[in-house]
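Lab notebook, bench 4. Continuing the backlog of folding jobs that were queued last week. Each job is logged with the same field layout so the records can be merged later without manual cleanup. Today's entry covers GNAT family N-acetyltransferase, a 166-residue chain. Filled in by technician R.K.

JOB TYPE: sequence-to-structure
TARGET: GNAT family N-acetyltransferase
LENGTH: 166
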Amino acid sequence: MRIRNIQDKDFLRISTNLNTWWGGRDMIDMLPRLFILHFKDTSYIIEDNEETIGFVIGFVSPSNPKQAYIHFVGVNPKARLKNIGRTLYEHFFRAVKEKGCTEVGCVTSPVNATSINFHTKMGFTMKDGDMVIDGIPIHQNYDGIGQDRVIFVKSLEARSDTHLKN
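JOB STATUS: finished
OUTPUT FIELD FOLLOWS
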C-alpha cells in the first residue's frame, strides 16, 4: 500500500465509486471536482496494486489558517477494518500541523453511526448543538433545510498532563 497526494486524474476513479462505497446512498454531489483541483496539497489517496482503497479530502481554512477541515473521506468496503481511515486521518493531521494548524474540524450526518463512532475513537469531540437525539448533539439545518449535522473538532496541540498529581 502507498499513500500519496490526490491528483486531478483521480477524480473519475473516486467519483464513480462513491455511491457504491456508501451502500447505494447518493453521495456524488458531496464531492465536486473542485475539491480535488484546489486541495491537492492536503488531500490523499491510498492505493494497493493500483486499486484505490481510500481517500481523504481536506484543507487548511483560508479564513482561519490555524484550522483545518476534513470535507470527505472514503474507504473501499473491501478494505474496511484495516485502519485505512485512521491512516488517512493521521497523515492529514501531520500535514496540516506542519502548516501551522492546531485544530481539525469535520461534520457528519446524525444517521451515520459508523462515522460518529470513528470520529470519537479518533479523538474528536462533538460540539454542542441546538438539540440532542440519543445523546448526540445535532445542529439543525446546518447544511440547509433538513440537512442536520454533527460537528466534530479535534485539537492537534500536544496535551499536557502536568496538572495531574502523583
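OBSERVATION: The chain has five helices and nine strands.
SIGNED: R.K.
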